[in-house]
Amino acid sequence: MEKIKYQVFLSSTYMDLSKERKQVLDVLLMADCIPAGMESFVATDDEQFNVIKKVIDLCDYYILILGKRYGSINKQTGIRAPMSRIRT
What CA–CA distance (Å, rounded) separates 20 from 66? Predict the structure, then answer.
């Protein structure tokens, strides 16, 4: 029987939660999941954000790690990056 591998998008502010992200990432890898995250993206322009939304749509799960910071504000929409990903 073939084992199912789930793709999981990991979202958080990066600098202040890097330790927590690594812990979650380690667990995902031990669980044989395929992690995806913001490390490869810059969420500042709309074209890049559309790519991020497509990656999120392809994921089976979405993990949001919350801390003291809330993410950058998109100058065009006035919405913070984590909130815009939730609204998609």
Answer: 10
